[in-house]
Write a structure and sequence with these properties.
single chain, alpha+beta, 4 helices, 12 strands, about 40% strand
């Protein structure tokens, strides 16, 4: 496999990785519920879904680790940082890749090749969860299920349903995101579990903005643990 093709496939996997942190939900306890439809309409008709959306809107920052399992059984892990609006950083432990939302662009940086590729953030699935006021008209909710304290919500991009879907998994008590499962356009399934996530840290402990600077990607990149 060529290096450029490998980078493209890795970038695609990474887009699947965080497709969208937090968008839709419904219900905390009881029987499974089949609530479906456009996200905007569902937020008006389902108060629990609306509560989940409001939680997303109040999300300022997140940092933690993740474990990723692909459909072929391959595993990977790494670290995630997010700071809204429009900033995210993903690093893999075993791949020389940094995925970065810098406020405008989505950047894939290969530290081994010291090479970048960029597209507009608005053209990626991350745009929905990272924008300051998420536009619910951009998603369709196709399945809502709850069982044993776990809430699962499956959604797709209303503009491009052919791109696949994502299922978010939440614990109901306390209400917190556990992880997600992505089904891409080729039918490949990728499961991501969050490990020790920290939500909405105060300013002194929130991810520093320097982490999300495109011009700081490179051999002299800042250490994420230094402030």
């Amino acid at each position: 496999m060529s290096r450029s093709l490998s980078l493209t496939l890795s970038a695609t996997a990474a887009v699947s990785l965080f497709l969208s942190v937090l968008l839709s939900l419904s219900l905390f306890v009881g029987e499974a519920k089949s609530a479906t439809g456009n996200g905007e309409a569902l937020a008006r008709s389902d108060p629990v879904f609306a509560t989940a959306v409001n939680w997303l809107r109040e999300l300022d920052n997140m940092q933690g680790e993740f474990l990723q399992v692909s459909s072929n059984g391959a595993q990977d892990q790494g670290r995630i940082w997010m700071r809204r609006p429009n900033r995210m950083r993903i690093e893999y432990d075993s791949q020389p890749l940094v995925l970065l939302a810098d406020g405008i662009n989505w950047v894939v940086y290969d530290s081994e090749e010291d090479a970048k590729s960029e597209i507009l953030l608005s053209a990626t699935p991350f745009h929905f969860i990272l924008q300051e006021d998420p536009d619910l008209s951009e998603i369709n909710v196709t399945r809502v299920h709850r069982a044993a304290g776990i809430l699962e919500v499956t959604f797709e991009d209303a503009r491009h349903p052919e791109h696949g879907s994502m299922t978010l998994e939440f614990a109901s008590a306390p209400f917190v995101l556990r992880g997600w499962v992505v089904l891409d356009a080729q039918g490949r399934r990728t499961r991501v579990s969050l490990v020790n996530p920290v939500w909405n840290a105060d300013e002194a402990r929130a991810p520093p903005f320097v982490l999300f600077r495109n011009d700081r990607l490179g051999p002299s990149a800042p250490d994420p643990d230094r402030r």
